[in-house]
Amino acid sequence: MRSLCVCSTDKEYGNTINLETFRTSSDFLNLESISRSLICQEDSTIYCLLERAQYCYNAFIYEADAFAEDGLEGSLLEHVVKESEMFHAKLGRFESASELPFFPKELPDMFLPPNQYVIIDVNHKMWDAYFQNLLPNLVKEGSDGFYASSAVRDANCLLAISKRVHTGRFLAESKFTANTKDYTAAIKAQDKEALMNLLSYPEVEENVKERVLMKAKNMTEEAVYKIDPSLVREIYARWLIPLTKEVQVEYLLRRLS
Ligand SMILES: O=C(O)C(=O)C[C@]1(C(=O)O)C=C[C@@H](O)C=C1
């Protein structure tokens, strides 16, 4: 029976970039400590969503050729994310196994630990889901001129969501370690459905959805700008939990390769 933990930090995923170290370190592959980290991440994720919701959609941020006259390719948001990743990379952010850049090809090789990128990366799928589905439901239509502020908030949301979803790699490894026999059979058969059944805990998912709903209610009560708390629940139900599970399945399918 899974216990439902309260809170902790995610320090346990610190500078551990080597895949073998990652697989053999029992401390941070403990399912309860990973769950605690997920619970802590909820606060920052909800806060990021709330912050972005104060601005309109601001389509200009996403126009691919907005800076063509200056000889620059890409949207304002892409620039914000790429530039911040470049800066963070220099500080060593991507030495942490829990951090995956959206634009790894733009980063100098020396900032990219070799092992980290053979494992699962759904950042591009997440990027599309964020703009096509999540953002239009979160913000008001139209423009208010706060382009830079909105782009920075988008970048923060993407980062928080990416971190949450890719924690799936740690969850998967922890579940594999705890029940190697059953997982191995499903992996050898490359049976996605069996893996999905093995790694899913419906009652835990219900708890997550209810908890984020309560957190969103509390946070929006204090905030000047509001979002419908049930939207946060829906974001978790429709995007964050399914993507976290997808990362787990994809990770496991390659686990014995
Ligand atoms: O807690 C876990 O075991 C997870 O894999 C995380 C998570 C989630 O995304 O919140 C995903 C799958 C489980 O069914 C329960 C919860």
From TrEMBL:
Domain Chorismate mutase per the UniProt entry, residue ranges: 150-248
Top-level enzyme category: isomerase
Superkingdom to which the source organism belongs: Eukaryota
Gene Ontology cellular component terms for the protein in this record: cytoplasm
PROSITE patterns: CHORISMATE_MUT_3
GO BP, one annotated term: aromatic amino acid family biosynthetic process
Documented EC number(s): 5.4.99.5
GO molecular function, one term: chorismate mutase activity
Pathway: Metabolic intermediate biosynthesis; prephenate biosynthesis; prephenate from chorismate: step 1/1
Keyword field: Amino-acid biosynthesis, Aromatic amino acid biosynthesis, Isomerase
Pfam families to which the protein is assigned, alphabetical: CM_2
InterPro entries per UniProt: Chorismate_II_sf (IPR036263), Chorismate_mutase_AroQ_euk (IPR008238), CM_AroQ_sf_eucaryotic (IPR037039), CM_II_prokaryot (IPR002701)
PANTHER family named in the record: CHORISMATE MUTASE (PTHR21145), CHORISMATE MUTASE 1, CHLOROPLASTIC (PTHR21145:SF0)
NCBIfam families for the chain: CM_pl-yst
Protein name: chorismate mutase
The species this protein was found in: Linum tenue
